[in-house]
Amino acid sequence: MPEPGLIVQISGLLPALSPAEQRVARLVVADPADAARRTITDLATAAETSEATVIRFCRSVGLEGYPQLRIRLAAEAARRVEPPDARVVGGDIPPGADFAQIIATIAFNDARAVEETAQQLDPEVCEAVVEALNAATRIEIYGAGASGFVASDFQQKLHRIGRTAYYWPDVHAALTSVALLGKGDVAIGISHTGTTGDVLDVLDVARSRGATTVALTNFPRSPIADVADHVLTTAARETTYRSGATASRLAQLTVVDCLFVGVAARNRAKARKALEVTAEAVRSRRVARRRG
Amino acid sequence: MPEPGLIVQISGLLPALSPAEQRVARLVVADPADAARRTITDLATAAETSEATVIRFCRSVGLEGYPQLRIRLAAEAARRVEPPDARVVGGDIPPGADFAQIIATIAFNDARAVEETAQQLDPEVCEAVVEALNAATRIEIYGAGASGFVASDFQQKLHRIGRTAYYWPDVHAALTSVALLGKGDVAIGISHTGTTGDVLDVLDVARSRGATTVALTNFPRSPIADVADHVLTTAARETTYRSGATASRLAQLTVVDCLFVGVAARNRAKARKALEVTAEAVRSRRVARRRG
DNA sequence: TCGGCGCGTGAAAGTAAGTTTCATGCGTGG
DNA sequence: CCACGCATGAAACTTACTTTCACGCGCCGA
């Protein structure tokens, strides 16, 4: 591990160096990134000295040779770069923002939603849910609006590894299907706010049939908690409608991903096989190379 | 300004590289810091290829030569703060992993996909796309399989702020609809691999009608680039099917989010109003309090 | 004042690293 | 089955880096 502070070290022993080496050292300290870009001849010329002296300088600071100096300088210079800059955490995009700012702000918030969701996700609850999913003969997933995408995604994932899972975009269909669940089956309801009536209804029915009910929401104390045996929570802070709730979507998908991997891990070989088979199935739809 | 994400860029270009170059690329991506320390001969040997190929690889990723690669890699490696504990970056979940580990690994990779995507996203391309979206009288979005969710999400977002946008899950429907596009309209194709035949066909038709075509893919040098006026790239490293491609989904959604915010920002007041109206529309579907 | 001594220095020789060129062989499409 | 083109490594070549060596300058003692 390169002990940090090569630049610091150099400026420390600057006075101990010979005049010609000092000229080199000063250039290096003044702009490490620039020095890293130069060739030895180039740097020697800039310091009004010979290549030999540059090498001597490298040895003086304890390095093998010039290439080593270059990469150390590049590394050091990179480390120095201040972390991006003040992003309005969870805040709105300022009106005059340029696109780079927009991207940075969104990415920051999105990534944070994912990370914070993972942090607060309860492994034990996850495990219990995975257990239930594994034991279930049938799985129903329901979500309305934006959460419907996530429900659908989850359904597809489970299906791909050979689990019987359903997602009905239509509440009526969902209610009908859920009414056929029994003990040992699982119903999952997804609702960011935890107050989506339709989702509650679906879980309600599922529960009354003896199925295990699972809620995925951002608000653990919301009504959905009352109809769920297990509550999984996301941690998206979105307050405004600014970003069309993408952060919460990402958080939900992350949770779904965790559950999916958990289920797949229970039967590694079979899941892997299933994934390969399904991947193979769409291969013919791919074109081989760039077209003329 | 060292444009960020060389590693990210390399993994994006991976499939476009020749086999021998891919071997080099994989070594570089696997351990950038180590690669930076090696001499070109050394690296070539490790990749079981010749120095010439290493040079070709450097050129392929847009660098002058090998020394430049070394420096960039050193810089990149330094900037990268190693994840707290040993998480197999982009790797598989170890068989005996407990749920806390699974969650940590997934969240780490998911969050990284979002961040790295943002880093390498070209603001100018985004801007151009937003411009086109704003000017369009009609927008068509198409994606197959998992990318279909993202297409659908985008369609819904645009629709919510009053833009005329379509998403047809069926290729035939999509082709038909796209055939009716004209100059000034926009077609967006989403394909993680960039090789999905159906998506290419859709963009092809759109282009032939004079519409502006946009591609969203993880691999900028894939066939989809040939039929797109603007190429937006994600930066997900997923190699295995482990997580059912969630990371790439998140990356795509992030890009979509950026575009959406960009479009909305052009007409702030109107967009805000539209969002409020649509939010209000589903309010009646929400339950007020926890139910006894 | 002069002669040696040693250190800093750059020129030049020498070596290693990086780059270009080219011939081969393999796979693809006609 | 042939022709073409592309990927590839061997070898020639160039550039960068390293070592060697001799010069010169300043210091010291005679």
From TrEMBL, chains A, B:
<feature type="domain" description="SIS">
    <location>
        <begin position="129"/>
        <end position="269"/>
    </location>
</feature>
<dbReference type="InterPro" id="IPR009057">
    <property type="entry name" value="Homeodomain-like_sf"/>
</dbReference>
<keyword id="KW-0238">DNA-binding</keyword>
<keyword id="KW-0805">Transcription regulation</keyword>
<dbReference type="InterPro" id="IPR000281">
    <property type="entry name" value="HTH_RpiR"/>
</dbReference>
<feature type="domain" description="HTH rpiR-type">
    <location>
        <begin position="4"/>
        <end position="80"/>
    </location>
</feature>
<dbReference type="InterPro" id="IPR046348">
    <property type="entry name" value="SIS_dom_sf"/>
</dbReference>
<dbReference type="Pfam" id="PF01418">
    <property type="entry name" value="HTH_6"/>
</dbReference>
<protein>
    <submittedName>
        <fullName>RpiR family transcriptional regulator</fullName>
    </submittedName>
</protein>
<dbReference type="InterPro" id="IPR035472">
    <property type="entry name" value="RpiR-like_SIS"/>
</dbReference>
<dbReference type="InterPro" id="IPR001347">
    <property type="entry name" value="SIS_dom"/>
</dbReference>
<dbReference type="InterPro" id="IPR047640">
    <property type="entry name" value="RpiR-like"/>
</dbReference>
<dbReference type="Pfam" id="PF01380">
    <property type="entry name" value="SIS"/>
</dbReference>
<keyword id="KW-0804">Transcription</keyword>
<dbReference type="InterPro" id="IPR036388">
    <property type="entry name" value="WH-like_DNA-bd_sf"/>
</dbReference>
